[in-house]
DNA sequence: CATAAACGTGCACAAACGTGCAAATCGGCA
DNA sequence: TGCCGATTTGCACGTTTGTGCACGTTTATG
């Protein structure tokens, strides 16, 4: 028996590990209470509060009296997120657009990175774009020269697009050449993951409706794992990463048969 | 066993969480009663009143004797009056928004006038908005405080929204309190008309899915007739016209049982 | 006008909080 | 092995926040 046993229990875990587990609890239950966490992890409330402070500082939770809740950022400023890393996303988008051939039908998920891709698509190349995000649809309508098909359904404000059953049903009746599911987390061994249950189901439907899948991921998504699995890595043909992406990480995906495309460096 | 109880219950919740749930109840039921809340959350009425006071201070509810209601549907706040949009459409929109009651479900067609209406809607009044226009959906998502349902389908660039068979099918499965079909032309004797075949079919479906219909028309639409009929005038309950609309024209609609609402004069 | 319910305010108390500090643990490095 | 710095942790301190109660006032209703 290994003496440094895998932490099946919640007692005696490393500080960082504890924070991850707190985050997992928060994501699954929607809230955490400081006193309860102190009891579960067998540490003082002070340590729990320190953890919550750090998580809140990274924007991963919202501190409230008595514990923490899911950040309001999850359900608020989508408008803000659009202007987060413009240059990095543009560099990624330019690389991703290189995979698109004239006349193809694309399935584009909601998300800021995907909006950058839509903005970088060449107009007048006979492209058909199917999307569940009103923002992306509007962007393409304004640019003209695209055939746009909108996926309807109830819209999640935090996601910025339709992801419910109705949306999945519509995608099932479609067929695309290429799809761009927004990545929440992608790992060479464990595949593609999402933070939300319905969102992940929708991404899976997208992938199943497309011949090829392109995952475009900023650095923070690489090697991360979220709560809900979207697909095995075998379903992903292309991965577009930033210039700054670790060489070893890129190799890890390559050996699984994924074509890794590296974006140009950004001046910043 | 259930020592660290998940928030399935309404008892033993964090203060801030409780406020969120009160707000959720308010949005779904349109009103909350202080005594009932005190019982449900197992706190004193004093705490409930404090919660309601804070929510009211943030403009999220309206305090009344015995509890709270959704904030009144007020006209557009000053800041929106300063946008660069045409003043005439804003005046129309402000008048149209006066017909909306808290908690209602609205069906809003594509079009610039309707976009002005969406921009003038009060946030946080528990309104559900169904629209076929990505632009309007995006606008409401950015403003927050709305439930948004998107009608999908192939998008016509000239119309700015989905109007095909698929869109009509989705509308048929819905039910709304109020609908705002964009008017191409409206005539007291011949009813509501549109320029495009599919667009007109979609507008008709909207009207059939709604309890009441509000037509908002700029002066140039009044007394005009287009190619495709959308509906008889009997299906239209409200007509919002500009301040400058002819008195005789307004009377012509009134005698057909249509409630005519005249917008305020614009300074221009 | 009478009455009960709902309300606001001030107050006391406990729980939760932040901060500073000392003890404990761990990983390098001579 | 022994020392040093960094990190983590628990404790003590004073402070803030939420809560319920008592009291007097306002509001709705018959």
From TrEMBL, chains A, B:
Keywords: Repressor, Transcription, Transcription regulation
Top-level division of the source organism's lineage: Bacteria
Pfam families: DeoRC, HTH_DeoR
Domain spans labelled HTH deoR-type: 15-70
Designated name of the protein: DeoR/GlpR transcriptional regulator
Organism in which the protein naturally occurs: Dyella mobilis
Source species taxonomy: Bacteria, Pseudomonadati, Pseudomonadota, Gammaproteobacteria, Lysobacterales
